[in-house]
Amino acid sequence: MAAGALLALKALNKNFGGILAINDLSFELAEGELLGLIGPNGSGKTTAVNLITGFVKPSSGAVVYRDRDITGMPPYAIVRLGISRTFQMVKPFYQLPAYKNMIIPLYSPRVKQMTGGRYGDRDAVALDLLEEVGFERDAQVAYKSAAVLPQGYLKRLELAKAIALKPDVIILDELFSGLSLAEVASIVPIIERLRLEGKSIIMIEHRLKELFRIADRVVVLNFGQKIAEGRAQEVMASDAVKKAYLGVEA
Amino acid sequence: MERRKERIDRGIKVRAGDVFALCSWREMLYLLAPRLIPVLGFLLLPLVLDNYWQKVLLSVAAFALLAISWDILAQSGMVSLGQALFFGLGAYCSGVLTHTFGCPPLLALPAAALLGGLLSTLCLLPVLRLRGVYFSMVTLIIPLMLVRVIEATKIFGGTEGLSGIAPLPSKWVELYLIVGALLAALFGFRRLLDSDYGLVLKAIKDNDRSVINAGINIYWFKAQALFIASSLAALTGAYMTHVYMFVGMPVFALDYSILPIAAAVVGGPGTLAGATVGAVILVPLSEVLRGIGGLRIVFYGLFLVVFIVALPEGIFHYIQRKYHQVERWVEVQ
What we know:
The structure holds two protein chains of two kinds. By secondary structure, chain A is an alpha/beta fold. Helix content of chain A is 36%, strand content 25%.
């Protein structure tokens, strides 16, 4: 493991029955880095995230965070160490107003630990966080029920819930999917700002053009295996990646 | 011509929703009436009822408490089919404390509530990970199992049970104790469930992965909700032990599991008030129907079916909507 790696996956394997969903996967995330995780559908990207965050236990291999083996720890304990994620399928609490959705992460022991034991006024903190991700305060969007919010706002809400935990590593699972170009363009600055604050980010994306503009490095998966790793242009030029995406013999 | 039902908040609801409610007696009464009616009703009824109906009221309050306990669990995502487990453990705890250790009833009650709650939580701790119907099945089985354990090992009086248990000091203490407990539970736990803590519990029901993802140990929160709800039911069981001056195997009967669920469903789940309304309707109804003999259960069942088909949201939600909103049909282009 190279010095300075914040999070490292070491020879991870995961079987679902007879299917090898993740096959000998190793990669590292450096402090402050934005790493893109790409690959065709079913290539194991989300499973890789589930392995890091503890929602799924690996069959073998290890996940190391800040030189500590976190393999097999329960997911809530991993969150408390500072790794938070968004879900690909947004699942807000529909009957609640948007800002009340934020109460759950703001109730987290992680928040208590990061703020020195003081939660503060959770409603006010929630409104501030939502404004940060683009819930315009003047338009009172944050007070609207999550059931009536369009997809763009639900994705922002998901992002705000991850940020509320004051994480060191944020894993964004297809944050851009289902959004219009304009909506993506308005979320990109939020991600850039998170990087300026020193957060390390892993982004799973299918929207490669938008991803390549902000990613430092990408890892390409296919059939649970890493087939390429490096700077975006180099990776996309490689034969294995072309073959995985386009399905032709290069 | 297509029509659509439009619902609009009443003017008075909007006006009473803010500090302006303090401007006029009418607005204040609008807010207070739904709270005062149950409070005054339960406090004054014991004074006007005769002996027989006082016992019915006592039974109403007991089942309302069981229904509230069920609703707290249901709102935290745990559908219990075994309120009898909590009820029975509380009943036996109080029985043994009074009968064997000579504890005075007023001390045995809170002790049995806590002890019964603790035992119930420990019983179900290993299955907290189960979701949906799997959890329900286990809660259904355990009380039936405990009956056989008591029968086979002859502990706590075996099939005979423990009789001659010290009663509460007087009829009035008996009545107002359970009525007070009901009102305290109704308003106290409603407040708890509306707080941020309650929001976390409800979120576990909605989407538990999202709650885990906030770094919250949902099993710890579920265990807390289980302890709160089962203590409440155990208190009810302990109380009934002193009312009947007897505790035996019937405390684990299916009635104590099913009737509270019926009350909560008829009244409207998700609001503890609904559970109370359900008990207020179902228990006296069952008494009134006693007059017609054998067909009692048939009529009772028919009533339940009609209610569930006609008002699936529950009575309380229906009344609440009528109280706060006006409805009218509008044409749809």
